[in-house]
Amino acid sequence: MCEKQIRMIASSTLSPIPMVGDAVFFLLFCYISAMANSRRDKADSYTQRAHKEGYPARSVYKLEEINAKEKLIKPGDSVLDVGAAPGSWTLYTHRMLIKGKGRIVSCDLNPLSLDPVPPTVTEITGDAFSKEIRARLTELGPYDAIISDAAPMTTGNRTVDTTRSEGLASEVVRLAEEQLKKGGNLVIKIFQGGGEQEILRHMREMFKKAKAFKPKASRDDSFEIFLIGLEKK
Ligand SMILES: C[S@@+](CC[C@H](N)C(=O)[O-])C[C@H]1O[C@@H](n2cnc3c(N)ncnc32)[C@H](O)[C@@H]1O
Question: Which residue in 12, 177, 179, 186 has its CB near the most CB atoms, within 10 A?
Fold first, then answer.
């Protein structure tokens, strides 16, 4: 929101008296600036920390929070990471969750930006839901955990973006139906307003426990949430 817009709200809607309008403007301006700064600081601190710790994206801290809340992955597990590029979730899984013991199949439309790619990782570049890549993922399965941070390129049109996100999330659920082991765990990103309640209902039938979770590391203005399924029946 720009200064002109704040001034218009303050002076025209809140008070007909000019001085009061100015005071309201000043308070509103301070409040909105403080909110914007705190949001930026939060984003920056995650980005800086990711950089310092050698992760290519700040999204790593979402997986860290999700896994701290629900133990999804343990050393020795076989993990499928869908929508894996640039590779933070993959690297975190290698370092902190499977601790170098186990394996990770990392699939994305784009290549990973990890140098070197950890030895536990099999990288697959392409559409995870195309016939040929799917066959390859099946060949390398089944998995103890499937984690998906896959997201469409956003257009700015919320209806389009949420519909595409729902499409990706539904495909991941289908993949989990086929390729997740009994007792296995699932995490899926979805944009809110994109049929997440229906997918969650379906996950409650598939898993002993299923819930939605919004990590603190998600940007305040992001409408993403994560659906977590624990212990596939
Ligand atoms: C938010 S990024 C993932 C970030 C990643 N978790 C990390 O920590 O580095 C979303 C990714 O989903 C990928 N994606 C979207 N649709 C896909 C599809 N059909 N198959 C594979 N990857 C897909 C995009 O290419 C993009 O790299």
Answer: 186
Q: Which residues are catalytic?
A: 189
pTM: 0.84
104 lines ligand 1 (CB under 6 A): no
Contacts of 13 (CB under 8 A, 6+ apart): none
The helix or strand, by DSSP H or E, that contains position 21, with its residue range, turns out to be helix 18-53
Instruction: List the structure tokens of 10.
Output: 């303050």
Q: How far away, in angstroms, is 99 Cα from ligand 1 center?
A: 23
pLDDT average per 10 residues of sequence, the chain (233 residues): 47 52 55 50 78 96 96 97 98 97 98 98 98 98 98 95 97 98 98 92 98 90 93 98
Strands (E) across 50-193 are located at 78-82, 103-108, 121-125, 143-148, 180-191
